[in-house]
Amino acid sequence: MKNKKVYVVFIGTQRYAGFFKIWYEGVQKHLFADCEKTVLAFSDLIDSYQEFDKPGVIRFKVPHLPWPFVTLSRFDFIKKALEKLGDSNDATHLLFLDADLIPVADRTFKDIFGDGSKKFVAVHHPGQAADPNWNSFVKTG
Predict the structure, then answer these.
(1) To bridge 103 with a disulfide, which of 1, 30, 97, 130 should be the other Cys (CB 3.0-4.6 Å)?
(2) Which residues, 6 or more positions from 31, have their beta carbon under 8 angstroms from its beta carbon?
(3) Range list of β-strands (E), 12-56
(4) Cβ distance 114 to 121 under 8 Å?
(5) pLDDT tens per residue across span 11-23
(6) CA 15 to each of CA 7, 19, 40, 50, 121: distance values in angstroms, whole numbers, following the listed order
(7) Tens of pLDDT along 85-110?
(8) Phi, psi dihedral angles at 12 (to 5 degrees)
(9) What is the pTM of this model?
(10) Going by C-beta distance under 8 Å and a sequence separation of 6 or more, which residues neighbour residue 8?
């Protein structure tokens, strides 16, 4: 595989924009020391919250929408951003992390993406992981 470059996506509008500082610090300190990474940050406060003005961050202004529409719009936001980046989009992988999911331990590219044989990766949301009765896993094929 060519040199790995990961886009790490943050989406935080209104009060969730306040998570960016600690989220960014966690991403910089703990994620992908073994490859290049760039943060794609999306917020309605992108121009007024100075924390978004950091090295390695590409900023995109998006509207704040009532729950659950910001969450439901994430893929549209990301798709439009990748189209806007055009030829400068040289990322090999993309990882979306909730605004309140803060990396606190070192993780390599292989820790997250494995050997590259899977097209998608996902995590069990920590909010449900502690509930043994919550069944989120669906088998296909």
Answers:
(1) 30
(2) 6, 8, 37, 95, 103, 107, 112
(3) 36-43
(4) yes
(5) 999 999 999 999 9
(6) 23, 8, 18, 14, 28
(7) 998 888 999 999 999 989 999 999 99
(8) -150, 115
(9) 0.86
(10) 27, 31, 32, 37, 38, 39, 40, 94, 95, 97
